[in-house]
């Protein structure tokens, strides 16, 4: 019985201990330790020995160190010399021992011998010398053998050794995530419900002869919930969920990606029905090219993925889900029917979707009763689900920092400004710069109110520096817009250039600053898009003229002659000049009102939309019965100096 237990313990040790089969790294470690020990022994042997004593008990004289030049100069004083390599030792004529480092030179040795010295040369080698010579050679041979051993059998050798750590296995049939945890993408969830139905009741599909998609490609902007949606499918179907990243299949060893592709698919087949999720699939699924001579390993990995997906039978129950935000980079063979049959594009949530996402995440934090989530949803156009979750988390952190036990509207306001524009900056600004910033933002705010009937309502104006901006004007959209009329385009152009117009009206053309840089860039993009793509210019017409930019090099307008390109440039300039003149006209006719608005900004730093409207309309400052609104602009609508 004892022998049997001892045998089991030895087997367990060999299986899980230091000397595991195929663990070539341990062999390298042993060789390195042996080489290091040999170097220590050699250094110890070569080190000076302990002090010697004469028969009468007096210490023996210590050898003197001679340089190579000393040996040449005192050749006649040398009595004996023993040479081993470049090290020499012996005694002088007066009996003093010495050591020296010399260069082997027959003429030098002949000169010393002619002086009457006795010279002996030791050419023998110790075991330390043999160890230092053969260990590096054996290590090199072993490494070459280990490498070529991995090439044998593709998935064997190195592939089998390095893929011992399987791709991440998230859950095994008890995923807690369901569709109830996914909000704001109802249409996308509906697209995937039949996948869940197939995993639960595949018999009814087989009865009709329907083939459920073998692969589903989830694409969309970062943070829209692609990974969460894949986990929810597995949770709804109550099947195992295996996940790996596209970068997991790449490595420095050729053939490793192929081996890991085989392994994860073998794992899925053993646990079918299941969900096999590959995140960032564009890392291995990029379009193949005839010029990619230096990336053959990635293409081999892609080929193995294509083979594995094409080898599925219709009743395996394995659903492959890929996620990427660069679907345009994927190889066409990967997207053909039979592999990734269905492509689901997950868009950024709309107004109702953002409200659902905020309601979902609001259950995880404590929010004050006066926080209006509907206004917050209105003011976060362009935010993804991850952005909204981060917004509430930043607000919660601010609430804790301010000593509150729940999130207040001020916390959400500050968190949103921090995400959009950056944290507050403590800058020592000149009084004239602060004044110019106030008039700049007052110009934006005034023209915004003048066009409030056709543009988004103004939410607030501030001259508090954030990031690179010295101030900003924010708008609160009423609903999501999918298009703009030409009147809205021209109004937005006038609002964008109103800051520069205010500088000219109140300080003169010789005092304008570079603060309108972002405003001018935004206005130029909007005008060029409206003219060349949206067909809103009568002079250019309805022809689509796309601006192309390949590899960072500026090129001519696509689908346009030089004459048309000149016409486009002239039309863009005309639109911007007209918007600038429009804003200047509004501000020149209402200088006192704009000046009063700027002075209020200087005194209070931040004005709400209602306060701005009261100042412009001439009403007295008073509290309104309306609830305070949370920030509501977008990156596109934010005006910054």
What do these coordinates show?
By secondary structure, the chain is an alpha/beta fold. Helices cover 48% and strands 12% of the residues. It is built from 23 helices and 17 strands. It has helices at 2-16, 24-46, 68-73, 106-114, 127-151, 158-162, 186-200, 202-208, 226-237, 256-270, 296-310, 332-335, 351-362, 373-378, 385-401, 409-421, 431-450, 486-496, 498-507, 517-532, 562-589, 591-604, 609-617; strands at residues 64-66, 80-84, 87-91, 97-101, 118-121, 171-172, 215-220, 240-245, 274-279, 318-324, 342-346, 458-462, 472-475, 547-550, 553-557, 606-608, 639-640. The strands form four sheets. Strands 6-8-9-10-7-11 form a six-stranded mixed beta sheet, with helices on both faces. Helix 2 (24-46) runs antiparallel to helix 5 (127-151) and helix 18 (486-496) packs antiparallel against helix 20 (517-532). The chain is extended. The chain starts with a helix and ends with a strand.
Percentage beta strand: 5-15%
Total strands: 17
| Amino- and carboxy-terminal Cα gap | 85 Å
For the CA atoms, what is the radius of gyration? 39 Å
Mean pLDDT score, rounded?
77
What form results from the Cα inertia axes? extended
Low-confidence stretches: 1-23, 153-163, 165-172, 550-554, 620-641
Helix-strand category: alpha/beta
Q: Could you give a short account of the major beta sheet?
A: 6 strands, mixed
Q: Number of DSSP helices?
A: 23
For the largest sheet, list the strands in their spatial order: 6-8-9-10-7-11
| Percent of residues in helices | 40-55%
